[in-house]
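Researcher: For the record, we're logging two predictions in this thread. I'll number them. Prediction 1 follows.
Model: Prediction 1, sequence and structure:
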Amino acid sequence: MPLFRTFLIALVCTLVLAAAGSALWLWQGLKTLDAPVTLTEPVLFDVPQGMAFSQVARQLERVGLVDRSLWLRIHGRLFPDQTQIKAGEYEFTDGMSGNDMLQAMLTGDTKSWSMQFIEGWTFKDVRAALAASNRLRHVTSQWTDEQIMAALGADGEHPEGRFFPDTYLFSSQDSDLDLLRRAFETMNRVLAEEWSQRAEGLPYDRPYEALIMASIVERETGVAYERGEIAGVFVRRLRKGMRLQTDPTVIYGMGDSYNGRIGSRDLRRYTPYNTYRIDGLPPTPIALPGREAIHASLHPADGRTLYFVARGDGTHKFSATLAEHQQAVRQFQLNRRANYRSFPPPQQPGTQQ
């Protein structure tokens, strides 16, 4: 009996020591997940959709981001809720630990890039910028403009001017269509907000006409404080039945044939966008207008001016009469005719030039 008791005590002690040793081994192993990794530069780590947690752990070991994937896999066994990582591309930097990386993947803190749509860009410019990005998934590369608008729920609508110029963040999981949808929805929201607060008595029947005007204002000046006065000139011309006679619309109507100059022949040639030949607004916007241009078009400056001419420094000289305008043209534009076409005398609606 004493011998059995001695054996039992020894066995229990052995089991206790083994358990303690195993616990210490496990604790020390899991503590390695808190050790910071040394990196000379950030590392991009991709988690494809559907990749298992154990595969992610082994891949982290293969690229040297954790010493042994065993401890990460054991961690996942002990804490199953810690295995619900999200797909995407992650940026891991010097000093991060395995647990830091795991938390980033659990929260979906993926690496973001930015894409900027610039005020005054055309939709063609937008598509070119999207196509040039090697970080986006390209869904629309072979689509027509019509197919893109249909995918956005705007079947049959013209894309020009319908996308808000802004900086958009995206991850490797996003597509070009995702960015277009965000820009499209943002423009709809901004236009609705500005339209709801518009001034009274404007010559627009619907928000889309204000968007067309805003795109012209956007292309006419890059000087913020001039937008309201530019819009005021165009609004007064519409009210008086005068043609807008603005070069940016002519350029847009010329398409790829525009080579940086506008000649008299271009001003006489009919296109739906040549506001020297058509009455009122062109059929669509000609560029992406920003919020400031939209606001200016819906809150044009009061006054009597009907003309403006470029000074050559980015600003314009505004005039109320044709005589004043012609004098301003002689003053500011005598030596710059190759770069600017001034407003000709106003005409009655329906007449041809």
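Researcher: Logged. Prediction 2.
Model: Prediction 2, sequence and structure:
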Amino acid sequence: MSRIIVNIISEQTIPNYLFVKEVFLPGDSLLFIASQKFSTRIDWIVKTLGISDISIESILFPEGGEERWVDMEFMLKEKLSSEHTYFVNLTGGTKYMSLLVQHVFETFSSSFYYIPYPQNILLQPLYNDSIPLKYRLSVHEYLSNYNVSFTEKKLIRDESYCDYFFDRFVNGSMDYKVLDLLRSYRNDKKRAIVSIETCKSTEKRPCIEGLADFLEDVHFQVTENGFLKRAEIEYLTGGWFEEYMFYKIQKNISPQDIKLSVLIQRTETSNLNDLDVVFVSGNKLFVIECKTGIAGVAMFNQTVYKASAIKEAVLGLSANTFIASLAQEDDNLRKTAKNMGVYYKCREDIDNPSRFESFMNQIKAIANN
């Protein structure tokens, strides 16, 4: 008998996707069951799967009708056949829908499964059995399952230079004023260093005397002699810390996948959101927003609100958002972030070896839970 993989679709699509990736064999067909409200999520899953030459069918219950047992039972039975074997994932949908699906499919050749996501376990309730999930998601797969497309940036400097810049920054052995003034040039595609040093100073374009000396002092080699390109300006004014955290996560966590400076766009909106470091570990998404400082409560609240809003609207319930700041420790800021569902790490959590180890262990614990 031919095999059909069955998923009940609801708001969270990752368990559905993982189920297909775990049990799918060449020649299988897919059947999705959902209310009209979540019908577009079927397209998200199918697009992410990218499987060609496969039979895909959907059963969509009308709005307001997903709790009319007799009508729903008829719609299901009309699609089913004794000529098929069904592998049924009961994870999604409402409890009412799950009960109905199990009730109907029990009259056919069916095996039932449940994924207690975010745990990476595939349960077979009827046999009291559990199977570890082997499949591991990429960042692209995770975001695509929420209809999110993105671009990413390339690394500017190697790990050793990021470590060097970090040490100079936290030890106070560099000119912070130059870095602050240089922020005014972040949107410039390319600027001659001498023009920045000698221009008529304005609020939008300040003159930065000694810029060339600063670059020499921090051993920053430009790719084009005498010029600073946009990517280099972005690096000097904060991108270095993003790359520093990228390398540390890569070394200490060994994530399934990791991306730097991700620019995301949900296809049904025009809103763009940038995420500093994004990685997947234990099939869970982690986002780290990197700040070289927090200039006051207003800026902190804005940062926390952004991180919380992106998590709620885009990244799914299993996403874990951290703010890594080089500002000094402040328990009030930590509590504010916690109340918004965001983890806050200050300079001491990053600069102090034992506290940084605790930070990394916290991520590992969440990933392995």
